[in-house]
Amino acid sequence: MISSHLQKIRQPLTDKQRARLRKIMREFHVRAFGEELARINFLPEKRRKQAVAEMIDYARSKGVDLSRPALGVTP
Amino acid sequence: MRGGWTSHFTWKTRPEETCLDIFGIAPRGSSPWELHLRGIYADPNVVAEMKRTNRDRDWPFATALGGQMLDEGDAEGWLHLHDPEVMRLWVSVSPPPESLLAFRPLLRLSPFKDVEKIKRLLLAERVFWSELDVIRIRIYQSHLRPYFSALRKVSASRRGISLEESHHLRVDGALQHLPSRPLHDHGLGKMVEEARNNTTLMIGSDVLDWLPAAEHNFTGL
Lengths: 75, 221
Prior knowledge:
The structure holds 2 protein chains of 2 kinds.
Chain A: H1 15-33, H2 35-41, H3 45-61
Chain B: E1 6-11, E2 18-23, E3 37-38, E4 41-42, H1 44-50, H2 59-71, H3 84-91, H4 115-141, H5 144-155, H6 163-177, H7 182-186, H8 188-203
Antiparallel strand pairs in B: 1-2, 3-4
Helix pairs in contact in B: 1-2, 4-8, 5-6
């Protein structure tokens, strides 16, 4: 972390600030990833993993080829 | 894995191939990832630093991780916000701390009212990290030819060898033909300088002072 080069900077949020941040980030997720993924991204971890697994199963059932070549380099 | 080398495996499984990427040092990591684990996962800061690549699709993930860090009260999340709208909206609630300005000069423009300027400097930052990534990959790839050539020679007569045998051949070849610290040998400062020069050529020389510090992003190399 950059903070290992300086003192750790904590800015604990109030409930009101956290609600505001989540609204801002939710709108960003919709812009960046689309409504469906944005909805999934904000689910609790267990439900999020389940939703992703269901999405993959659905894609497979529709014949989507999910394979991709190894690039040989970590991007 | 020393020096930032990576290893990539592919199994021809069905219905899809199974791929596994292994690395020991996180690209652009500012500290060892193993010191900041979240259970079995890497810390959001480590992943956000890794997402500063030359691929467009990676950047929204960095911003998302920056937001997650801010949500957890970690002000360093400001280093990972690359969306002008998120920055403009969030600054009115909780501005970036002064101690981060040296690492990311763009934060000096808080509260980010000049949207066009912010967008241009965000683009410059992205070009800078992207160029740094291109240079990084180019350095690693420049050493691969003698390694692959030697590997082909020794494995040509050994069809169907086990994973363990293949592993030993590759490790022997790597020890013989690959430098253990290619980025360090090339010069980390030289890499940064080249990326900065390329950025000013593409965006303009006026952005030079606004480019982020990158000298902390070579931990372990």
